[in-house]
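Hi F.,

I've been meaning to write this up properly since the lab meeting, where we talked about keeping a consistent format for the predictions we share between groups. The idea is simple: the sequence comes first, exactly as it goes in, then the structure tokens exactly as they come out, then a line or two of notes. No screenshots and no reformatting. I'm using this chain as the first example so we have something concrete to point to.
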Amino acid sequence: MPPAHHAALPERELPTGPVSPVTPQLGGQRRGARLRPRGSPKRAMLEGNRVSRISVRGFAVASATAVTAVGSVVGVASGSTAQPSNDAEATASDSTLLADIPAGQQAQVQTASLTQQADAQAIAADASAKKDAEEAARKQAADNAVAKQKAAEAKAEKEAQARKEAAAEAASRSATRDASSFSVQSSYTVAQIQAMARQMVPSGQFQCFSNIVNHESSWNYKAVNASSGAYGLFQALPGSKMSSVGSDWQTNPATQIKWGLNYMDSRYGSPCDAWSFWQANHWY
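Output, unedited:
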């Protein structure tokens, strides 16, 4: 085919002078705009704003786990591992953003948070100490109650023993014979007089009674002290005071025994108490 004929284009005048370099366009960027490097101040400020949006919640988490973090370092050094916990973050989930607090007050907020934690620990320690004190007081009260109960039981046992002995003494006295129950004789041997005394003196008191009579008259119902005139088994002074229990006080050992027993009981409480006094003073 013959070559096609094209319409002639008008000539275009080229600009004279130096030509400006062409700047490549990226993503629809406006002509003439300059690219900012990634480390530019404005980009750093934007990143800083995002970082500064750390909440008080985050600070609370960091504060609450500060000691745990130190412990974790020690744990790693010793070969142990700790599982992460979200409890502190969950607790502070509704906290105010730290960025919402003026910069000049953020340090105060942080200090107040640490102070609050210290106060909480102090309150817990006080509660533990109070609980320990209450437990010690309860234990002491229980020990005191046991001691009182034992003392009361010991006292009751002692009183019961005293009543038992008193009852035995009364029974022994009731079983003794009265002086008037013995037949009157012209004379009496030591054995006869001692037999009378055994029937008139309570059995638990007889040995003490016998000790006094041995020292005073050696069981001689007619013994007379040449210097004082004391008379009879008990060396009554004067002897006539024995007439309070019988007019035959000079010749009847049973009358003298009755008087001597009454004297020991009324003055000392019993023949054994009279014997204790005699041992200390050699008279009664």
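Notes:
DSSP finds nine helices and no strands in the chain.
Confidence is low (pLDDT under 50) at residues 23-33, 44-84.

If this format works for you, I'll send the rest the same way.

G.
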